[in-house]
């Protein structure tokens, strides 16, 4: 392998702006924001156009260099990082950040893969449209990464995951050929829907360079409420009551355990308890409507009053201003940051059928407490679609070094329960490096074989993002 010759070819393909040499920038692109996977790319390229991505892929294909696509480097499974040893070319799409078109008539925008999610939200709002994907990292994550991981977010209850928001894709294949699948059709029944192969593929089949994305009418009315609850079972009853009363206006329903708020308040100065008295559990909900006169607050208030009378909720607050609503959601976004300061945490992004969420939380808590006395349950997430972030914490005050070796057994306990309940060990974060060792235990052999055959058909040299998703 002649590294210098290939670097020269890459420089010719992407120009001086496209070959990263700055040590600080290289370090940032090789360092995950969470956990500590070792990463050492052979070279880092940042193409500025699809033709340059195609040229890079063709060079790597000819020279036998593995290629690792990276979005905003906000993932939590290590999927966008090169392997140690300096064998991989890391390709970042951040320079490809143009909004190619905004079609209000068809409610579709076409954006390049390096566009920041928050920028696309703002561009849609400027045209009185709404792009509903919403994540805590939306100020830095890119739409290409969102698509490659099939991101979920808080609005999946109403609008679905990234898979439901993509109309078409432009993809550079491993050999450098470009597939132009940027279709704006609501219906196209002409065979396999190829875009779905790349959505959630974690960069193992090709490089997403642009996407046609569905838009919705911009909500003009919004209502946010937080209620205190006795248990996840009561949260489920509250959710069912809301869905019956609010229908499609209900956009989000987040379940939060009390310890999550306590930890966030401990490590986030200025964060206050949301209700007058602590409650074991909370549900943060939001409804939206295109009709300014929808009176969403009145409908949620009526639901709350009925639930309070029925003993289904303990307390609650309904936001009376945009500032109050934003404050409630800011609290929700601080939960994931809080547990980073509590020592070892055992992170799980799992999903079960919505009706089984209380069962999962009860069974996982009991099983872990029996095996590891002192372990603290730390659960929050999107109860409306069955996605729970089950991030148990080590016992308070004990050495972190005593708890770190317990990760494999904690994972096995939690994931075995998820599997028995018909769930998934990854709901929205993907597999990456984090879960690839565990996947064969929970995926049927025939399903894994089909995935591997697809991988072999599109990437016969195994060039695309090796060491991720598959063993």
From TrEMBL:
It holds the Pfam family FAD-oxidase_C. Its EC number is 1.-.-.-. Belongs to the FAD-binding oxidoreductase/transferase type 4 family. PANTHER family: BLL6224 PROTEIN, D-2-HYDROXYGLUTARATE DEHYDROGENASE, MITOCHONDRIAL. SUPFAM superfamilies: FAD-binding/transporter-associated domain-like (SSF56176), FAD-linked oxidases, C-terminal domain (SSF55103). It is an enzyme of class 1 (oxidoreductase). GO terms for biological process: respiratory electron transport chain. The keyword Flavoprotein applies. It comes from Pseudogemmobacter humi. Residues 37-218 form the FAD-binding PCMH-type domain. The keyword Manganese does not apply. InterPro entries: FAD-bd_oxidored_4_C, FAD-bd_PCMH, FAD-bd_PCMH-like_sf, FAD-bd_PCMH_sub2, FAD-linked_Oxase-like_C, FAD-oxidored/transferase_4, Oxid_FAD_bind_N, Vanillyl_alc_oxidase_C-sub2. Its cofactor is FAD. Keywords: FAD, Flavoprotein, Oxidoreductase. One of its GO terms (molecular function) is oxidoreductase activity. This is Putative FAD-linked oxidoreductase.
